[in-house]
Write a structure and sequence with these properties.
about 170 residues, alpha+beta, five-stranded mixed β-sheet, 5 strands
């Protein structure tokens, strides 16, 4: 987080210098200074440099880590409000809830709002193997969160108790 703040501050100061160069460029063009075309090049270069540093500061965003969250795989994502994740069948109820919270934070993107829905639904599933050669998908629960805000305190997490009862005994606790 400290590095992101430092790069953002650098981008801000480079942006101020770009504005200063732009003012000098306009003055050079108005008063027909001999250096005016060099000022155009300097200002253009500074604008590209400012944009690059700002974009670099966006790349260092660190997603929060939820305690007890397990690893998950994204198995379906339409780029809009619907996502399905897969988890291991041997997780506890608290780990499943934490994993849903982690997925809601990790998979959030404001670009999903453009798909026409104001809420994002992330469904969690696992695969059970009741007998050799047979695989049964089991949807354990879902989280619905707002797409309008990155930090949603009103997430709706629901786990299906009937489906949780079908999990191996280690996960039923």
């Amino acid at each position: 987080m400290v590095l992101t703040a430092q790069i953002t501050a650098i981008a801000q100061w480079v942006g101020y210098f770009t504005i200063f160069c732009a003012v000098l460029m306009v003055l050079g063009l108005l008063f027909k200074w001999g250096i005016r075309f060099r000022l155009v090049g300097i200002t253009s270069f500074m604008a590209v440099l400012t944009g690059g540093i700002y974009a670099l500061s966006l790349g260092f965003y660190v997603r929060p880590s939820i305690p007890n969250a397990a690893q998950f795989s994204r198995v379906f994502d339409n780029g809009g409000p619907d996502v399905v994740i897969a988890v291991s069948p041997d997780l506890t109820r608290t780990e499943l809830e934490a994993t849903l919270r982690q997925a809601a934070g990790d998979l959030y993107s404001s670009g999903r709002l453009a798909q026409g829905a104001d809420k994002m639904t992330i469904r969690m599933r696992t695969i059970l193997h009741p007998e050799p050669g047979v695989s049964v998908p089991l949807y354990l629960g879902e989280v619905r969160r707002s797409l309008a805000s990155r930090y949603d305190d009103q997430m709706e997490i629901s786990l299906d108790p009937a489906k949780l009862a079908q999990l191996p005994k280690a996960a039923a606790s």
